[in-house]
Design brief:
This protein has 219 residues and is an alpha+beta fold. The protein is built from ten helices and four strands; from the N terminus they run E-H-E-H-E-E-H-H-H-H-H-H-H-H. Helix content is 51%, strand content 8%. The longest helix has 21 residues.
Length: 219
Amino acid sequence: MDRLVIGTRRYSSWSLRGWLAVRCAGLEVEDQVIPLRGAGQTREIHEISPNALVPYLEHQGARIWESLAICEYCAEISPSLWPRDWVARATARSVASEMHAGFRALRQALPMNLGREGRPRATMPDEALSDIGMIDRLWCKTRECFGGSGPYLFGAVFTNADIMFAPIASRFASYGVTLSEDASTYCHAVLDHPLMREWYRLAAQEPEEWRLDRYESLD
């Protein structure tokens, strides 16, 4: 059985990235959702995924773990997941990798929680505020250079670069983060993508017992 193993949709930002890539590429795989316990304590994932993390994809004999690797695999099947122009494609890979490897302070301060809407943190670390500013500028500069033909970072097509930043858009909405006008417009476009709306819908259907107090009680 071809499958994509993901964690709780409400919380798992890396699962969202893998799922978006798989759906954009049109892979016929079954979602296997494993409720997360947090802090690496979900033993079921350890028994399935080679790196003990989600997402993990099995497709036609291939085994792919790690979200950016899944994005690259999906782009081999659906090349439009990277921009056609080689200069734009190089930039898209760079910004996707920057998101993959960076902005740790933001990810720690604003964990993904799709049940939280427009509620800012009582306090925000300076490092997280710096990350927010960097992402805002990155979005605006990329859109200025490459986004003229549509609402996404590289125009009309939702690419792997947008996929890597999609959980950030959800975080900004959840925590009521103030962005520049151009960045806010892009953020709303990502959240309005049909696959993002589907993910939110599926997350809302998850059992309440899957919820984790460490995220729900965050100030």
